[in-house]
Each structure stands twice: as C-alpha cells, then as structure tokens.
Design brief:
Elements lengths: L2 H12 L2 H23 L31 H37 L1 H15 L3 H12 L3 H27 L3 H8 L4 H37 L11 H9 L6 H29 L1 H6 L1
C-alpha cells in the first residue's frame, strides 16, 4: 500500500463520523480498563463486609456487591480480561483461518477440498453450542476459552480469505511473481495477503464484538473465566442473584459490555464503508 493511499485512507477515516465515533469509544474503553485498575484504591478481590450491597457513593461510584467488593474496580478488571480473551481469540482465528483460506484458494485441488470441508464441519455447529462442547471437553482455563472462541470463528475467516484470494490469484502481478520463480509462500504473503487484508480486518472488528458476547455468555453460565478472576459475564451472573436488592451490579456490568460493543460495531461499520469501493462511492 503506497504512502499516498495510506494518507488518503487516514483522511477519509478522520472525516467518517461513524468510524471516528467508534474509534473514540474504543479508545476510551481501552484507557479505562488499562489505567482504571492502576489508579483506583481497591483491588478486584478486596472485600469490605461492612459495606455489602452498598449503593453507588463517593467511596464506591458503582456500589458494591454481596462481598463488599467495589463494582467499578471489578467491571474494569473484568473488562480487561474479557477484551484480552476476545482479542487473542479473534487474532488467532484471523491468522489461522485466513491462512487456511489463502492456501486453499491458491493451491486448489485436494488442499482446497480438505481445508474447506473442515471449515464446513465447524459451520455445522451453532457457535455457542460448539464453544460449550469445547469447554466441556478441554476444561475451563483461559487458554481453552481463547482456543474455543477462535475455533468457532475460524471458518468465517477461512471463507472470506478463500473468496478474496480467488479474486486476485490470477491477477497480472501474481502471475509475474510466479514467472519470476518466487515461492508460493512468498507470493501468498507479499502479493496476495496485502490485497485481501481489508475484508479480513473488517470481519475481525465484527468478530471481536461477537467474541465478547460469547465469552460473557460462557462466563455467565459458569463455563468461562473461573473465580476469583473477574469477568463481565461472571459479574453479571453474580448480580442476577440479588438484582432486586442491588440492581447496579448486573446493570453496570451489562452497560460496560454494551458500550464496548457499540464502539467496536461503529468502528467496524466505518472500516467497512471505507474499504468497500461500492459503499465508498456513495459517501
């Protein structure tokens, strides 16, 4: 990608209100979950049994839970855990799934058949059911959560990479690289991958939002992040037990998820508009 094209894309991004709003929200969320736990005076597991289920106050801006733990601190720490798991899972799905789709389309033949049938097999299971099955089979560690979410979204990236590669694998610049004797791996990484990265990036932003929901859902039913490590889904699960007495626990953790999803979805919509030539012409 040329310097001129990068500068042009950056200018269009700054003038795209949806993308800019998404970037601002995502930046604020990231700063909150990274910096917040460092400056707040409580830890996520600090208990004050004299202040259990206390409503929001100056000492506890979002109140406390049934163990007297500060809800704001737990939401920020839980958001950090949830975002980290979701980001690593989608990054893994993008790399592995994108590599599968790129190799399948470039080589064709049995490589295409085997890799895409594996992707079809994963598509046959509903995403949440497949994640549940994997967690039950392999256990409830954080690494297994990342692996489960990545495997759920891997076939999506494989299909996108394959379809995009089919559009560019016979272009003159790819043919020229072949005639020059470059290896297939080098051609895929240097000639094809840069030209199919835009749809993968857009899908990654959308997948990040769904990964957060999936991780929260697993933690909500007790099959995700295990106590004492806080997660947004786990906080919501705790809060539902005493929602009538202390609605702020469930409400604030749910609101944190909503804000994060809003920012990611806005950013994803903006990236889609900026990278799709058909949509770009309308703006």
């Amino acid at each position: 990608m040329s310097l001129f094209h990068r500068n042009s894309l950056a200018r269009r991004f700054l003038h795209h209100r949806t993308a800019l709003a998404g970037l601002v929200i995502c930046t604020c969320v990231l700063l909150a979950v990274i910096v917040g736990p460092l400056i707040l005076p409580y830890g996520p597991e600090d208990m004050d049994f004299m202040a259990t289920l206390s409503p929001p106050s100056m000492a506890h801006p979002l109140g406390t839970d049934s163990f007297g733990r500060d809800v704001l601190v737990r939401v920020l720490n839980g958001g950090q855990v949830s975002l980290t798991i979701s980001f690593l899972a989608i990054a893994l799905a993008t790399v592995v799934g994108g590599g599968m789709g790129l190799a399948a389309a470039y080589h064709g033949g049995w490589t295409d058949v085997i890799l895409m049938r594996f992707a079809d097999l994963l598509f046959a299971f509903p995403s949440f059911i497949l994640a549940l099955l994997l967690m039950v089979m392999f256990g409830f560690s954080t690494s297994n959560i990342i692996f489960a979410i990545a495997l759920v979204y891997l076939p999506i990236f494989a299909r996108i990479a394959r379809n995009s590669t089919l559009l560019v694998r016979d272009e003159p610049f790819v043919q020229a690289a072949r005639l020059m004797g470059r290896r297939p791996v080098a051609i895929m990484l240097t000639q094809i991958l840069p030209n199919i990265s835009a749809p993968l990036l857009v899908q990654a932003s959308a997948g990040m939002a769904f990964a957060i929901i999936l991780e929260a859902g697993l933690s909500f039913i007790g099959l995700g992040v295990q106590p004492p490590t806080p997660s947004l889904g786990g906080i919501m699960s705790d809060g539902r037990e005493y929602f009538s007495r202390a609605p702020w626990v469930l409400t604030m953790s749910g609101l944190a998820i909503s804000v994060a999803l809003l920012g990611i979805n806005l950013l994803g919509d903006g990236l889609r508009d900026l990278t799709d030539p058909r949509l770009r012409e309308r703006n």
